[in-house]
Task: inverse folding
């Protein structure tokens, strides 16, 4: 089962710019905190656009080993390195740009499980209208 998330940042006018994470949204918070510490870093994610997940290098290596052991074709995936993180995209995600939302309420009304929003220099998680 996939975990859908929106990853993005809040502008000073309260609008949100975010990219969709369609696969493993719950596990990426530590990767975001480790490698995406500034607005410039967050903009890199948005430049990539829609993605499947963010792996640590160890998680990436484990994924590659697992796919080989299980004889799973991963030729439909691309991997983009940033710091110690690897952003994985399925080919059908490539070219899908970030989305602008009018406010946090608009983000939380999307069909997502969690939103990771960079605001005031730190990551905040939103689930069911709660900030974590």
Result:
């Amino acid at each position: 089962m996939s975990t859908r998330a929106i990853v993005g940042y809040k502008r000073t006018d309260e609008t949100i710019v975010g990219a969709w994470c369609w696969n493993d949204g719950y596990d990426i918070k530590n990767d975001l905190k480790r490698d995406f510490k500034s607005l410039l870093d967050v903009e890199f994610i948005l430049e990539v656009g829609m993605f499947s997940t963010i792996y640590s290098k160890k998680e990436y290596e484990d994924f590659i080993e697992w796919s080989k052991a299980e004889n799973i074709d991963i030729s439909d995936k691309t991997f983009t390195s940033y710091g110690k993180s690897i952003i994985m995209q399925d080919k059908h995600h490539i070219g899908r740009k970030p989305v602008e939302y009018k406010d946090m309420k608009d983000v939380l009304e999307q069909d997502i499980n969690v939103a990771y929003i960079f605001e005031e220099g730190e990551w905040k998680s939103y689930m069911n209208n709660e900030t974590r």
